[in-house]
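Demo today. Your pick:
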Amino acid sequence: MPRTTAPRTTARRTSARRTTATLAATLMAAALLPATAATASAEPVPAACATSQTRTFAWPGSLGTEYYLTKEVVGDGTAAPGGTVTFRTTVSGNGALVTRIEDFHPQGFVLVGARESVWKLIGGQTWTTVTDDVRSNSATSSVYRTSSGWTTAGGNHATLETTYRVPDDATPGNVLDTGAGMAVALSDGEKVANPSGACVTIREKNPVEQVTGSLESVGLGSLGTGSATLEGIVGDPATFSADLINQIDVGQLLAGLAGS
């Protein structure tokens, strides 16, 4: 008898089921890894680099008063290709009005969010989202925020926090320096520390980040909605099973894979 060949659609569905099972198994294995195994080790950070650096400025125009420009990498100082990293640039001192805060970031990093912490007459020192209010300077790879004047009197400070998407082609092991700048309402009050020695280290993607990329490639986005995100799964593996059930629509996954 002639040999019967299964329809191509059946083959696609079989392949989709196998891919779904593989992705689910990989997610489960990733969540069960110890926290120390979830993050790949990076090359040693140069001695000149740290996750936080502060420069002290005192000049004739400051009349003997010192002002401080601090640049920080929020978190453990690492970021994976395609992931995000957050920096904080803070100006403090003893009373000058801060009119500009500038964050110098590595080339290729794309801003995805910004907020500021400044003292206000009503509310005091508070955080406010300012993503739509910051400006970018592609020539200097920087993002900055200006004001008519934020006070640093009484121990207050002015902070700009910026979050960036890391390029997909960033090389694991690279240590990237960043910079900071400020302007205060004093004679010769514009100061820059670029580079600052506050560095971010590019690391390999951890298992969950690798699987996230695979799921995104079949049109399921970041699999992060509400409070249950893949980052949360990595940080608290005990909640993995519930989060997985809540966030992965297996029917949608099958449909996306079968249609590919």
Q: What stands out?
A: The chain is about 25% helix and 35% strand. The chain has two domains: 8-39+206-258, 52-202.
